[in-house]
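User:
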Amino acid sequence: MEQNTILLVDDDLDLCEVVKKYLEKNGLVVHTVYNGSEAYDSIHEIHPDLIILDIEMPEINGFQLAKMLQKENCNVPVMFISGRHDTTSAVEAFDLGAEDYIRKPVEPVELLARIKCRLKKNVVQNNSIYSIGSYTFNSLTLELSDHQLNVVVLTSLQGKILHFLYQNICKTVTRDEIFEFAWGQKNNDSRAVDMHISNLRKSLSKDKNIEIRNDYALGYSLVIRQSDTLKVK
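Assistant: Predicted structure:
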């Protein structure tokens, strides 16, 4: 089973040693660095599953590093640990996309529990995010983004239909099957299905290699072409 990798960033060497030993004892891989500059390089080298980040550090502080990652659209989750107990700092951390804010002194047992909670959330999200041609679709948030990071938020029904078509890629699914999956009932309204398919085609229209085929007697199939051949994801 693959182990999760944690990047621990703090200029308190004693804290890093204690936390690293405890987390590794509990099955995590932990890399420690002691300032934001080293952290920035490490993130791009080791690709951690989670970053645990102090605020007050030399060279680049935690907030500055979080802003840099935000500009790069880095999707590695960040948890802050800090000696700052004021509400303003916590709010700023969450505004920068932090998943959690833990005030020092840090209890390793509590930190581990929070890490496990975050990593479980990662698994759910990773299983819900996938590529459809040049698009990325998040079936939880219903966000469909293109390679230029333009985002369209689909309706709940559109998202369910796209998810169902993707699960059955290159296979024709009937209108009845689509309706039952998206609406949760068997009373088929083929006109409603056709309307939502039409809207999905518009949302996917920037990628000419994506086609939602209409097999008139049966239903629809999602097909993605690559180099003039059909590619099954």
